[in-house]
Task: structure prediction
Amino acid sequence: MSDRYRPRGPRNQQRGGYQSRSSYIPQRRDNRNRDSYIPSGPKRLAERDNYRPDNDRYQQQENRPASSIPHGESPSSLSGATALHPPPKGPRDSYASGMKRPLPSGPASFRKRRDFNSNSNRIPIPKGPRQGFNEMDGGNGNGNGNVDNYRRARQPEKQKLSLEQIYCIKTTNRPNIYQRVLQVGEGTYGKVYKAQHKLTGEYVAMKKLRLESEKEGFPITAIREIKLLQSFDHANVVGLLEMMVEYNQIYMVFDYLDHDLTGLLTHPDLQLQECHRKFIFKQLMEGLNYLHKKRIIHRDIKGSNILLDNIGRLKIADFGLARTMKIVGANEKPDYTNRVITIWYRPPELLLGATDYGREVDVWGVGCLLIELYCKMAAFRGMDEVSQLCRIFNIMGTPTLQNWPEIDQLPWFEMLKPKINVKSKFAQKYSESMSVPAFKLAEQLLQLNPKLRPTAEEALNHEYFQQDPQPKPLYFLKDIQGEWHEFETKKRRRAERKRIKEEEDAQLAASKKAAAAPAVASAPAEASAVNSIKEEVDSVDAITYSEKLVNGDDNKNRSSEIDLKIVDSVEEHNKMEEKSLDTKTT
Result:
């Protein structure tokens, strides 16, 4: 066994020559007898330890140029620290004790750069004001002028841009950059305001999203609308300018247009010609064709969502119910909701509960608007789903399995199927008020069978747009006073109804007052007649009293006879009571 594993006894019994840890003293280097102390650390530590703030003579001599040394005097003849400690030859040489190390002039890699050494590529450093600058001293050249004038002169002139050139405006103002003017619309998903930009003066439409009833965060319909609006780029489809958050409210900012179709058609002095109607309807079909090619269904085509400016340029707005069509397989159905589209413009397949539909629902809506352009009134005005379906069948005729084979497969057909067959009255009702090409196009757009309705692209190729007169802008809209929207039109109607009711109430009150006036006028006559009657009665009473005075004996005899009769009747009455009492006792 080796000594490593051999057990050992107490330390005092160990072998000689063993040195314990407590008695071990390491051998240190004695530097006390040396002339100078040289640290054993790195050179930078030696330089740090040798630095003395009073040894600045070498630094001054080192920084002096060669031309500044006196003639006939060599650097070796200089006294002090310069003669004793000559300057080091390079940065890697060590510095002697008491010598100040020169300050570094920068990294070597930076000094080796060509662009740094060359004066052509060096960035110019702005200098201070020069003496004799005319802007500062007011033209005297003394340099004692106003510094503000100098700074104003050095500032570059700001370039003014037109509204078409402005892409983005960065401002540090408060968030209410838009000043509201008035409310122009209100719907299920929010309110719409007309507002003016405080910097540019441009008018915009701000749609305030209604978030009070949301329990699951931001509404999915608003997210879908924002996503769709950001993808649009067409002259006849409204675009989203920006999103704005103000006082915990979210706004969507759009281009502002002066009118909508429903409000404009209610104007009493509006006279549309055939060319103007074509101009409006062609823009509507072009915008709808753009949406349908992008596989987007609007699902809320109506007059209040068709905006017009002051020359008749049209934009389709309000994509709160719009969505992209699903891509389904051969045996699959998209299963959309049928609770869309305002009831006056809702097609019959949705009223019968269809959930498998496509672009045809928008085509029915534009067909209703085409009739409204000529008649200034909605074609089918029902109160609910059942009455709306009855109005459609009464005008367009009841459908049959020959012209609509799939109607019996709709979910609500058995509940809402018509009891009697009605022939179409569409021709006799609208053929005289519309032109022949317009009537033919409307008849095709309003087919009961959705598969028989033309697409938007096919409608644009119809003869209605090919024949004369050609479409023309509505320049006369600039002369129309005010802005005509459906919201304001409803307010005007309510105010008109209130005024008419007040007038009727005033007329009724006046008629009642007029009817009460003769009675008041006849009251004095009646009073005088009553007084005359009273006078006559009094006179008669006076005559009878005088007669009584004259015929006093006769009157006394008559009165005594009457008194006797009364006494006899009282006695008979008492006798009768006594008899009744006797019978009761027996």
In short: The chain has a mean pLDDT of 75. DSSP finds 20 helices and ten strands in the chain. The CA atoms of residues 206 and 253 lie 5 Å apart. The longest helix spans residues 486-550.
